[in-house]
Design goal:
about 290 residues; 7 helices; about 35% helix; about 25% strand; globular; binds the ligand O=P(O)(O)O[C@@H]1C[C@H](O)[C@@H](CO)O1
Length: about 290
């Protein structure tokens, strides 16, 4: 895309979003995890920007992350989809990883729906289950890798934000209700997501430790974005697709790999797409009722 047409398109989009926010209409950002970029497919009036064309925006370096920002609408809701997000293991700082969330806040987005692929720790979880994230454990944060370390920008939020309700109770309830309306109750769960930095998958001793700590699934993303979203007052919903079962047993022969993660994501993308689309339209109705 030429620089001139990029500037033209971003300016008109900017005014479009401002107008919608002024009129009190709800807008949502969807962050698509590994292999889940298809979530943007159902949006209408799409306009797509490659990350590499956006000044100072990080670029995706991982397979299954297309690296595109897609603007569109689902029913009356303005949506922006990130087809691919950023990770510590790519060499990005957590400030770069979470930059898009702050941009969404400045654009007037009210709610963020974060999706990811993760390994199931909870012995009851099966491959293909969708876990509504109830809470998280910020393991890198314990070691000082935290997106809010450093000077606090008061324009976004307070120095010491509360994280005990990072994932909106109303949105979690809605996700479970919509899941059951779509006939997905058998494979929709709720649980605690733990972030590790990656890029290696867990050792068996690490996986056993995570089970003892109360983690239901483990992945390499999401927590920084959610922390920054909550800091700046956005409503958050997290959906984690269980793409593999994490080995807790030395006798288990199967070995996890990224290709398998992407294969399961692709297999489940359509169900997630339906869930996300319906959730967005239901949220719009709810927000009209509460505005
Ligand atoms: O959706 P994310 O990016 O969290 O996906 C997981 C973590 C790694 O990026 C990748 C490993 O297969 O999947």
């Amino acid at each position: 895309m030429s620089r001139r047409s990029l500037i033209g398109q971003t300016t008109s989009l900017f005014f479009h979003w401002l107008e919608r926010c002024r009129s009190g209409l709800w807008s949502v950002a969807v962050i698509c995890g590994s292999g889940l970029g298809l979530l943007a497919d159902r949006a209408a009036n799409k306009q797509t920007f490659r990350y590499q064309d956006i000044p100072n925006f990080p670029v995706s370096t991982v397979a299954g992350h297309e690296g595109c920002l897609v603007f569109g609408t689902i029913e009356d809701t303005s949506c922006v989809f990130m087809q691919g997000h950023f990770h510590l293991y790519e060499g990005y700082s957590l400030c770069q990883v979470t930059l898009p969330v702050r941009i969404f806040k400045l654009m007037g987005v009210e709610s963020v729906l974060v999706t990811n692929a993760s390994g199931g720790i909870c012995p009851d979880f099966k491959v293909g289950d969708i876990m509504v994230i109830k809470d998280h454990i910020n393991l890198p944060g314990f070691a000082g890798q935290h997106p809010l370390c450093g000077p606090n920008d008061e324009r976004f939020g307070i120095r010491f934000p509360c994280m005990s309700d990072a994932y909106s109770k109303d949105l979690r309830r809605l996700a479970l209700d919509v899941g059951s309306e779509l006939g997905c109750s058998d494979f929709i769960r709720e649980g605690v997501y733990c972030m590790v930095s990656g890029p290696n998958f867990e050792t068996i001793a690490e996986a056993r430790m995570l089970l003892i700590l109360g983690c239901d699934s483990v992945g390499m993303s999401t927590v920084p974005e959610v922390t920054v979203a909550k800091h700046c007052g956005l409503r958050v919903l997290g959906l984690s697709l269980i793409t593999n079962k994490v080995s807790l047993d030395y006798s288990r022969e199967e070995k996890v790999n990224h290709e398998e993660v992407l294969q399961i994501s692709k297999m489940r993308a359509e169900v997630l797409q339906k869930l996300v689309t319906k959730l967005i339209s239901r949220c719009q109705q709810q927000s009209i009722n509460t505005h």
